[in-house]
Amino acid sequence: MGTKQLKKEVNQRATMYVLTQEQINEIAAIGAKEALKVHRKERQKDERKRARDTDKVKQTKKMLSSYRRIKATLKDEEEFTEEEKTELRWKFIEDLMGNAREVAGKSDKTIKDMERRRQEDRYCVYRIEKATEMYKNECELTGSDEAKRRYRELSMLYLDEKKHTVQEIAEVEKVSDKTVYKDIGIACKIVAVYLLGI
């Protein structure tokens, strides 16, 4: 095969298309639209993930904030004995002086609701204590002074019997208020994983 024949075959295989400027602009516009769609989808996905993470941190802070109150009410409210349940039913009946069966049914429902709420509160306290205990262990295992400080700050703000203000925590830890807020945010993100999952 000669070089003329080879050039002829190469030219036949490499067919070139000539596009007008209008066609090039149209292809570029279609490509830009598709790229923009992909970019928007990725951004929306990132925003949804960020929103979920923010919601988990808010929910964690809310649960931690209510920890002391729930624990205090659990100390005051022990399980009702059968005699107390009966007494509560009759007291309820006396107060309403309505149809005895209807009122007794309502009082049973009220007692069951109170017991269910108490069990939910106990479970909530258990979950918070377990999650913060796991966070404490994580902080101790890292050996980082900063991680240990974050746990102490979280504990002072939410878990200790005496609630401390951010200013008091900042004084104790010898850091600024801004650092305490930042540390609490980081700690709550970690506790949220233990408390609410990923």
TrEMBL record:
Domain of life of the organism encoding this protein: Bacteria
Residues covered by region (Disordered): 37-62
Biased composition (Basic and acidic residues): 43-58
Protein name per Swiss-Prot or TrEMBL: MerR family transcriptional regulator
